[in-house]
Each structure stands twice: as structure tokens, then as C-alpha cells.
Amino acid sequence: MYRIAVLQGDGIGKEVTKGAVNILQAIADRFGHTFHFSYGLIGGEAIDREGTPLPEQTLHLCKQSDAVLLGAVGGPKWDNNPPHLRPEKGLLQIRKEMNLFANIRPVTFYESLAASSPLKPHVIEGADFVIVRELTGGLYFGKPSERRIEKGEEAVVDTLFYKRAEIERIITFAFTLAQKRKKKVTSVDKANVLESSRMWREVAEQVAKRFPDVQLEHMLVDNAAMQLVRSPKQFDVIVTENMFGDILSDEASMLTGSLGMLPSASLSVDGPALYEPIHGSAPDIAGQNKANPLATILSVAMMLRLSFGLTEEADIVERAVKQVLDAGYRTVDIAQHGDCVLSTTEMVEKVKDAI
Amino acid sequence: MYRIAVLQGDGIGKEVTKGAVNILQAIADRFGHTFHFSYGLIGGEAIDREGTPLPEQTLHLCKQSDAVLLGAVGGPKWDNNPPHLRPEKGLLQIRKEMNLFANIRPVTFYESLAASSPLKPHVIEGADFVIVRELTGGLYFGKPSERRIEKGEEAVVDTLFYKRAEIERIITFAFTLAQKRKKKVTSVDKANVLESSRMWREVAEQVAKRFPDVQLEHMLVDNAAMQLVRSPKQFDVIVTENMFGDILSDEASMLTGSLGMLPSASLSVDGPALYEPIHGSAPDIAGQNKANPLATILSVAMMLRLSFGLTEEADIVERAVKQVLDAGYRTVDIAQHGDCVLSTTEMVEKVKDAI
Ligand SMILES: CC(C)[C@H](C(=O)O)[C@@H](O)C(=O)O
Ligand SMILES: CC(C)[C@H](C(=O)O)[C@@H](O)C(=O)O
Predict the structure, then answer these.
(1) What is the fold of B1-103+260-355?
(2) Chain A residues touching B148 at Cβ < 8 A
(3) Binding residues for substrate, per the UniProt record (chains A, B) (predicted)?
(4) Which of residues 205-234 of B touch A (CB under 8 A)?
């Protein structure tokens, strides 16, 4: 029996998690597993109902579970709330409270989606890399982060802060991952400007010594933003600071043609992991049964593999997604002229059929 | 008589500034202007010869000039120097000392370079926008930026700091620019996480009231990194924080196929402006007469227009570049299979002939 906490969140978060739960159910039926789903509030809906973006109860539920599935949070309704009453705060808090330091964002090229990508086929064909984003430190969490008066003038400050041990932990994680893959780590920083990046680079060099079979390369973040578009095939494992990882992984989603295709896993030091699509709550299409559920379905495939060790089951889900795409089924975000466009629920059914 | 300070810097900086000076000379000959060039040291070479990346003398020279032309700085030789003895420090210092708050990076689509871009032609055709990057504040200059011991542990901190007035200045600049263009400003921030971005967004809203004819749109930086690749045609003027602008403009260079195509101008509050290509010193190809001089040549076109008001002359340089590209001439960075590849000096000659 596997206990899964489901945090649907806002906007399309509801639709896509529903689809993914459906897929997990199909896997359970086929393999005789029992998945027990418990639902918790997070984000805007939690603010509306409980007055806080991350209710204590939700956090408790997640910590008691074997894995967490999250949809997405946020929407215009809460955009002008004070910082502590913003949906995103719930997401940042759960990452911090559950110690989810390693966010893994695999970027996979799908032959059949080449037409949806803004990039030329020869540029992306065969690209296959993972962005490892540090998730509980850096510019997202450093203090102070506040308004202040400096010499009589209004000013504002945010802080990029890391303990050396935090940098070491994420870089070690990246090397361990690369060892099981193509044995190359690209450490992305801005060492020609930031002191934190210079420490990052030092630590990367040190960690590399413990992994003589893995090649380490340093790349400046501006160059990385360019190289991701220019020749993404050069990458295997990219490891970087929280904010840099946020920017680069959204950019990298364009290799597959849509943010709606990219899953992620956030691993903890000591507790359950969390799985979420990298896309947001997309308020503009919420409730219209239009959203692409594949990123979330691929996220539960990662859950099966990484949290439950159910490798075969994970493979089957991933293969089912590939098969459905190869058969030409598309949600609107990845559809081209002439494609027959499916709704969210129809797409989920197709994947289910393929399982 | 126009006094131009030339800071060649390191690596290909020398070759590309030489080419651009050549072009300015051709313009002088044709129009009967006098350009007076004075040379100053900056970056790695300044460290080697004067023990500092920005000698007092260089700064003095620049401040006395009507405009500054900069090549590029940096190289592996100085990569392990302490922070204050790194070539990039010279660049950061000159930006700060000359009050170069507004870095303008136009991104122009060249029909004849469509083949060199990793992006599909229909995505980039007709794209024409400007990135306005704040250049003297933000994460680049905030203090503290240092190692420290926190609760007995090694740690590191960098600071993103802005005075409200600095944000207002750059956003006002962007609106003024948009008024002369397609009348749209995209303000890029990370307001769902950073306090500085929330102030940025507030200020943008306020400034927008003074420009009722210009449309303001807010975009999160992760989304912007994606949209630049997905549909760059939507943009007119993008305005953003220093580090965000650094990342996004390198990414955007891929629309033209090469970093070697993008010029920039950095405007001052109160003194001369500085012009530089957005590419770096490219140590790997330095001294080989291979570098693309067009970004620097296009930078001097910006100089002619913005610092000297020589609009016709600027147009002629830009048209000459276009003509040379249309005629099929390429440096190696923008060459495709079958192209006849020119050296740096040959490319400069072609542009000169076209003038
Ligand atoms: C919603 C937002 C706070 C979040 C982030 O910036 O981390 C999102 O963009 C992501 O990438 O998961
Ligand atoms: C060389 C470096 C310090 C510089 C920057 O980061 O500003 C460069 O990347 C640029 O964009 O001009």
C-alpha cells in the first residue's frame, strides 16, 4: 500500500492531477497495487478556505505520506495579496518544510513532437538531459528580503544565500545522477560576477574529485541560456542555483514544444518526495478541459520509479505517453495545423488505453 | 570633431574593435567628419600591465570623451584571480563609475541569416525588439557580496539591491523608447517570489500612467525565457533587472543565429555612453582573425546615432551590414554548409566597400 498525498492547487492544477490519479489507478489495477489517495489544500484555494497558502494540516498529511503529487498554484485573484498570503508562498513553504532540496527536471525529445517545437529538428533531435535545480536556498529564500529606507530613500533588497553544505549536497546529487547517465555534469553559475557562484564553482571542483568517472564542465548562466537553444544535445546533467534553474528549465521546455510536457520530482533529504509538472496553474484555460495532462502523468511515472521503486510500472507509463504521441494525439498546446485536438480527459483516456 | 575612447580589452576584443574603428574611419572619409581615437587599457591586459582591471587613466580618458567603444574582457589566464583582480571587474567598474544605467540590446531578425538560427524561420521572421537591461544595480552590485560564517558553518551571500529611484529611471527610459517604437513595454520580473520584483512591478504601473499611449505588460522571468524562444515577435521593448537582462539577452541572440551579431549601447545619466558587442572575449578563437566583427560594427552604428546624432551615417552602416549578409558573406559563426567563409578583416573590408 502506497499513501499518496494529492495537492491539486489552483487553475488547471485540478484537472491535471485528476488525470494523473486516474493513470495511477490504472497502474494499480493492472499490477495489483494499492494506492491510497488523500487530498490536501494548497495555494489560492487554501487561502480562501483556511486563510493560509499552506495549512498545517496539509503539511502534516504530506509528511505522513509516501509521496506527494502537486498540481499548480496561483491565479490573478490573489496577485495583489500581501506576500505571506500569496499562493506561491504555499509552494515555497512546502518545499522548504519538507526539505525538498533537489528538483529534477528531465528534458526529453519526442520525435513525434518535433513539429511543435520552435527549434529546428536537427537542433533538438536526440536531446536528453536533466536539469537539477537547487530548490530550498539561493535567491528564493535568502534573508533579508524586504523594503527599507536607505539614506532617506526607498529601497528594496533580496538575498542570495547558501551554506557551503547546501551547495555540496546538490552538486553531489547531480554527480550521482550523472554516474547513472552519460557521465557529464554542467555546473551553471555566474562566477565572473557573484561571490556565491565562485563558492559554487569551488565546491563543484571538490565534489568532482570524488567522481573521477564523471566529467565536470562549468558554464556561465548567460552562456547556458544560449547553449540550451543552440545545441541542447551537449548536455547530460545540468546543476544550478534555484533562480537560474527556474529560468533555464522553462526555457528548456521549448525543446518539447510545450511547458505542458515537462515533469519534475523534488527529492527530500529525509522524507517523502514531491512530484509536480513544471507548468503553472494557467488561469486563462482553467476549467475548460483543455490543459495538457502529460507533464503530470510523466511526474507520476517519476514517482513510481523514484519513490516506490516500481521501475516496470514507470516504464509502462512513459511508453504509453510516447505511444499516444506517436499515434498523433495532441492537446491544443502541442497541436499543429491538421491535428485532431483532444481534451484533457480524452488525452488521459488515451494514455490509460495504452497502459 | 568627435573624441572616441577605444578600450579594446582582451581576446577577440582587439580584432573586433579594430574592425569597427576602420568602419568609423570610412564614415569619416565619406562624410568629412573627424573622429579622434584614444586608446585605454581595461580587463586582463590592464591587470597585467597596470595591476588593476580599470586604471584611473582609462576612466579619466573615457569621461573626457564623447563616446566609448569597448571590445570585450576576460580570459582563462585571469580566471583564478581574486575578485578585485578579475577582468570582468573592470567592466563592472566602468559601468558603475560612468553611471551607465541603461543597457540597450536590440535584437533584429536578418532574413539572410534565418538558416543560421536554431529557431524555425516562421518563429523568428520579422522579430524586432529591444532588451533594456538595468546595468548599474541589482544582483551585480548589491552589498554584502561575501563569504561568512553562519552558526559555525561556511556560507556565502550576494545581494539584489535597488533604490526605487533606480527602478523608476530604467523603466521610464524603456517607456520613452517604446513611444518611438511599437508602443509596448514588457516588464520582466519574478514578482511571485522576490520583494524587489514586487517593487519593480509597482513602479512599472506608476510609470505607465505617464505614458497612456504605451501598453504595459508584466511577465515572469521564467515565462519570458520561454516566450523569447516560443514567439519572439510579441515583444517590442523588454525592460528588466541586471542579471535577468544578462541571461535573456544572450538567449535572444540565438534569433540571429549568433552572439556575434548583437550590438549594445550603455547610456549614462550624465556623461558619455559606451558601446560594446554583447559577446565576450572568446579566448578560444582569439588572434585567429576568425571573430565576427558585425556586433561591434553595429555598436558603432548605435554610437553614430545615439551619441553623435548622425542618423544618416548610422543608417548607412546598418544597411551596409545587411547588404553584405544578403550578398552571402559570412564569418564562421554564422556560416552554413556551402557558404564561403570570410575572416574578420575580410568581413570588415566587405562592409567598408558597401559604405
Ligand atoms: C510558482 C513559482 C513560485 C515556481 C518557482 O518559481 O519555483 C514555479 O515557477 C516553478 O518553477 O515551480
Ligand atoms: C563579462 C560579464 C561580466 C558581462 C555581464 O555579465 O554583464 C557580460 O556577460 C555582458 O553581458 O556584458
Answers:
(1) Isopropylmalate Dehydrogenase (3.40.718)
(2) none
(3) 95, 105, 133, 222
(4) 221-223, 225-226, 228-231
Q: Where are the domains of chain A?
A: 1-102+261-355, 118-255
Nearest CA residue ID for atom 2, ligand 2: B88
Phi-psi region of A126 (alpha: psi -120 to 50; beta: other; left: phi over 0): left
A193–B contact, CB cutoff 8 A: yes
Helix (H) or strand (E) holding A23: helix A13-31
Among the four given CATH numbers 1.10.3720.10, 3.20.20.80, 3.40.718.10, 3.30.200.210, the one describing domain B118-256? 3.40.718.10
Per-residue model confidence as pLDDT tens digits over A274-333: 999 999 999 999 999 999 999 999 999 999 999 999 999 999 999 999 999 999 999 999
**Could you tell me the maximum CA-CA distance found in chain B, to the nearest angstrom?**
68
* Ligand that lies nearest to the alpha carbon of residue A274, given by its number in the listed order: 1
pLDDT tens readout for residues A35-88 = 999 999 999 999 999 999 999 999 999 999 999 999 999 999 998 899 999 999
Contact B250 A222 (CB under 8 A): yes
The residue whose CA has the least distance to atom 6 of ligand 2 is B246
Pocket test for ligand 1, best of A7, A16, A88 (most atoms within 8 A of CB): A88
DSSP H helices in B100-212: 121-124, 164-179, 195-209
Q: How many CB atoms lie within 10 A of CB A169?
A: 19
The C-alpha cell at B159 is 545581494
Q: What is the DSSP letter of A310?
A: -
How far, CA to CA in Å, does A340 sit from each of A330, A347, B96?
7, 11, 55
Cell of B322: 545587411
CA dihedral A221, A225, A230, A236 (to 10 degrees): 70
Q: Enter the C-alpha cell of residue B350.
A: 566587405
Query: 3-state class of B34 per DSSP?
Result: coil
- Look at B153 and A164 and tell me if their CB atoms are within 8 Å: yes
Cβ-based contacts of B246 with chain A (< 8 Å): 190, 221-222
The domain covering A1-102+261-355 belongs, at the CATH homologous superfamily level, to: Isopropylmalate Dehydrogenase (3.40.718.10)
Binding pocket residue ranges, ligand 1, CB within 6 Å: A 74, 88, 91, 246, 278, 280; B 192-193, 222
What is the CATH architecture assignment of A118-255? 3-Layer(aba) Sandwich (3.40)
Question: For position A261, what pLDDT does the model report?
Answer: 95
Q: Model pTM greater than 0.70?
A: yes
> Per-residue pLDDT tens for A192-209?
999 999 999 999 999 999
Pick the residue of B195, B217, B228, B234 with the most A CBs within 10 A to test the interface with A by mutation: B195
- Is residue A240 within 8 A of residue A187, CB to CB? The reply is yes
Catalytic residue list contains B275: no
Q: Are the Cβ atoms of B225 and A248 closer than 8 angstroms?
A: yes
pLDDT digits 0-9 by tens, B229-241: 999 999 999 999 9
